[in-house]
Amino acid sequence: MLELQRHAAGNLTLLNEIASEIRNKSHQEREGFKQLKRSLGSISLSAEYVKGGIDDLRHHQSYLEQGKILEWLSPLDFTAQQSDFLSRRQKGTANWFLESTEFNNWLGGDYSKTLFCPGLPGAGKTILTSVVVDHLTKLRTSNVGLANIYVHFQRKEDQTVEKLIGSLLKQLVHGRGVPDYLQALYSQHVAFRTRPSLDELLATLDAIVLSYSTTFIVVDALDELQTYEGTRSRFIDALFVLQSKASVKVLTTSRFLPDIIERFASAHNLEIRATERDVGIYLESRMSQLPAFVRRNEELQSDIKTGIIQAFNGM
């Protein structure tokens, strides 16, 4: 009997040892599994981080490539000029133009595609153009295109028809991503160091404006565009052809030149003249800059403003 008890006790001890080993092994396996999960999690996070870095790099490369294509289209950039001209506006002026029936019919009416705005030298055409561009920028939606050009006679060699059309393309594509057909045009020419023809640029511009519901094109000082080799006439032709194919609204300013007036004979007109109200606002803002004896004399200030307003004659 005693021997049987010792045998049973020995078996029990053996069973306990086996059970303990199983528990320990199970614990080790569990810890190993937890460590494996942590390692896999770290690898997953690292993979996501690497993927994010690669995506950022690709995005940056794409951005650089698109910038290269836009610069290739045309070196002309009117952003700085727009900011400069707009900063010269006296607050409260030019509202008469934005509130005019002619401008609002052009802005919202289906029948008025072109607004021709002639004016005398010094009437404020360029500053007013910057006000119009700023107004359109604030009203613009993602489905509305906007491009503007400031012509300057001193840049006649840079402001060719091809570069002007290229600038319109550049502005209308910017912020939207370069479409495949423009990428193809770039690849086709850059490989041979050639430039696209005017017809190629116009065909690409046609496709761009058709992707918008409406496109606004504002051109200041059309009269300063050179006439050599028909540059001015060809540019006007290009705008009119563009209007015949898509919803493109053109606003342009110019001096009173007979050939330009003739080209826009069928367009709606709104002459640009400095108004008494605008001149009065400008003069009022300058009174503080006059000598002390004028600043102290309100009657003298009134005489000065009246005299200038009577003499300004729209300029």
Describe the structure.
This protein has 315 residues and is of the alpha/beta class. The chain has three domains: 73 residues; 188 residues, P-loop containing nucleotide triphosphate hydrolases (Rossmann fold), CATH 3.40.50; 35 residues, no CATH class. Helices cover 62% and strands 9% of the residues. It contains 13 helices and five strands. The N and C termini lie far apart (131 Å).
β-strand amount: 5-15%
Side by side, the strands of the main sheet go 2-3-4-1-5
- Given this structure, which CATH class of the largest domain is correct? Alpha Beta
3D shape: extended
Mean pLDDT comes to 84
Order of helices and strands: HHHHEHEHHHEHEHEHHH
CATH architecture of the largest domain: 3-Layer(aba) Sandwich
